[in-house]
Amino acid sequence: MAVTLTNIFPSYDIKANVPLANYTNTRVGGPADWIFWPKSLAELKAVVAYAHQIDLPVLVLGNASNLIITDDGYRGLVIFLTQLTRITVSEHAVTALAGAALIDVTTKAAEYGLTGLEWAAGIPGSVGGAVYMNAGAYGGQVDAYLESADVLTATGELKTYQNAELAFGYRHSKVQDTGEVIVAATFHLEPGNATQIWSTMEEFNTRRAQKQPLEYPSCGSVFKRPAGHFAGKLIMDAGLQGFTVGGAQVSRKHAGFIVNLGSATSADYVAVIAHVQETVAKQFAVQLEPEVRILGH
Ligand SMILES: Cc1cc2nc3c(=O)[nH]c(=O)nc-3n(C[C@H](O)[C@H](O)[C@H](O)COP(=O)(O)OP(=O)(O)OC[C@H]3O[C@@H](n4cnc5c(N)ncnc54)[C@H](O)[C@@H]3O)c2cc1C
């Protein structure tokens, strides 16, 4: 029986056979059988439950800023949470739906004079993606500020994890193992000096613009920081800046980034990653492990 999601959920924002390259930060990625943008939690729950019922594989994404989708795309349903963006503020906390941009959460916190999330001001991910990845920068990391996260289980149950239950590690959270969908997160923040908060955020963003190739599509730092080293420095010392396959290039501005010069495919990205890993392993006996997720089937 052919799956016809658009017939079953006629009023939902669902499209068939759409190239994921249109939505990923790298601008690479083949077609998904289906893409769905839920406008409410109820829509999300209904479609996840139906997909579970008919065994349709589901991939939940936020801003697609930390992944490479393969050129053959995704056989199943990709759900982008980018319309679930509500952010609410209380005295010591900011709560956001998973699709809210981390950048908007940091702006909202600054507007209310709440300090803690300044380090995240320039990370182009969603709240869900940031919790999933335990994103971090400039000495800050999600696990230091997250109070709790609400998730949707595969069977449609909503539950709340407190910080300690999320088994956070370096670029790791428990949700990577459970496959649950993060639907909201609450960050615990402290009242601070608004002028100072804004200027810290601005300083971090200036540093990003100076060091990172923000003028090209990319997925941020490709590799995790290996113990005792910096991935970017190893790649630079190996003389790999500018190494190019097709349209994917080790950035000349920041060796930890692989940029899309315009015509890159996912295969180009994967080939550059493999070459960088091989060269760094040969020269420095360090095995670089990708931070970005390579997804698709
Ligand atoms: C220019 C640039 C700079 C960056 N700088 C940083 C940085 O300083 N620090 C840093 O840590 N990262 C950085 N990143 C990487 C990236 O922005 C972060 O990892 C971000 O948190 C990923 O969020 P996302 O919404 O884009 O996730 P996506 O790329 O959409 O998804 C990443 C993974 O999370 C899963 N996921 C996403 N949302 C959910 C959800 N709601 N429920 C369950 N699973 C979910 C996806 O299935 C996927 O496996 C950078 C990226 C770019 C392009």
Automatic annotation (TrEMBL):
It comes from Weissella halotolerans DSM 20190. The keyword Lipid biosynthesis does not apply. Its EC number is 1.3.1.98. Keywords: Cell cycle, Cell division, Cell shape, Cell wall biogenesis/degradation, Cytoplasm, FAD, Flavoprotein, NADP, Oxidoreductase, Peptidoglycan synthesis. It catalyses: UDP-N-acetyl-alpha-D-muramate + NADP(+) = UDP-N-acetyl-3-O-(1-carboxyvinyl)-alpha-D-glucosamine + NADPH + H(+). One of its GO terms (biological process) is cell division. It comes from the Bacteria. GO terms for molecular function: FAD binding; UDP-N-acetylmuramate dehydrogenase activity. Residues 27-192 form the FAD-binding PCMH-type domain. One of its GO terms (cellular component) is cytosol. Cell wall formation. Its cofactor is FAD. Pathway: Cell wall biogenesis; peptidoglycan biosynthesis. Belongs to the MurB family. This is UDP-N-acetylenolpyruvoylglucosamine reductase. Gene3D superfamilies: 3.30.465.10, UDP-N-acetylenolpyruvoylglucosamine reductase, C-terminal domain (3.90.78.10), Uridine Diphospho-n-acetylenolpyruvylglucosamine Reductase, domain 2 (3.30.43.10). It is an enzyme of class 1 (oxidoreductase). The gene is murB. The active site is at R171, S221, E291. It is found in: Cytoplasm.
